[in-house]
């Protein structure tokens, strides 16, 4: 039996902000800086500057498999134990129709994983 006080809510969070504060989607108004004027947000400006300066992000964080990951292998996925663990766990999964995967073509060729 589920607790009567347990409520399921769709939430969002800012990937650039250092604290992952969950924000209910219903509380974001159209006038919110996160929704309409995000380019004026200081956190957004800092994140854009860091990205332009060449900071990299784990391919599994980009894909949304993990929310954050500090790379210990200088983004050399071929020697990364974490990358191998994810691939090993996905080995038994079966994909019904690979044509239905959307957004795959948006990743740079070096970040795409070939599924056999």
For the report, how would you describe the main beta sheet?
Answer: 2 strands, antiparallel
Beta-strand content estimate: under 5%
Task: Show unreliable segments.
Answer: none
Overall shape: it is extended
Helix percent band: 10-25%
Give me the strand/helix succession.
EEHHH
Work out the helix count. Answer: 3
Distance between the termini: 42 Å
Rg from alpha-carbon coordinates: 18 Å
Mean pLDDT: 71
Q: Structural class, judged by helices and strands?
A: mainly alpha
Total strands: the figure is 2
Widest beta sheet: strand line-up: 1-2
Commentary on this structure:
The structure is a single chain. 22% of the residues lie in helices and 3% in strands. The longest helix has 11 residues, at 42-52. Strands 1-2 form a two-stranded antiparallel sheet. The protein has a domain at 73-116. The chain has 116 residues and is mostly helical.
Short descriptors:
116 residues; two-stranded antiparallel ribbon
How are the elements arranged and paired?
Blueprint: E1 11-12, E2 23-24, H1 42-52, H2 59-62, H3 81-90
Antiparallel strand pairs: 1-2
Summarize the structure.
With 116 residues, the chain is mainly α. The chain contains three helices and two strands; from the N terminus they run E-E-H-H-H. The protein has a domain of 44 residues.
């Amino acid at each position: 039996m589920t607790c009567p006080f347990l409520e399921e809510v769709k939430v969002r969070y800012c990937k650039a902000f250092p604290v992952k504060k969950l924000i209910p989607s219903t509380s974001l108004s159209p006038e919110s800086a996160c929704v309409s004027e995000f380019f004026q947000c200081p956190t957004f400006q800092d994140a854009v500057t860091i990205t332009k300066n060449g900071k990299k992000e784990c391919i599994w964080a980009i894909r949304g498999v993990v929310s954050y990951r500090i790379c210990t292998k200088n983004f050399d996925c071929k020697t990364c134990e974490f990358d191998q663990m994810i691939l090993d766990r996905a080995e038994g999964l079966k994909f019904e129709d690979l044509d239905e995967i959307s957004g795959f073509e948006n990743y740079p060729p070096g970040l795409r994983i070939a599924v056999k």
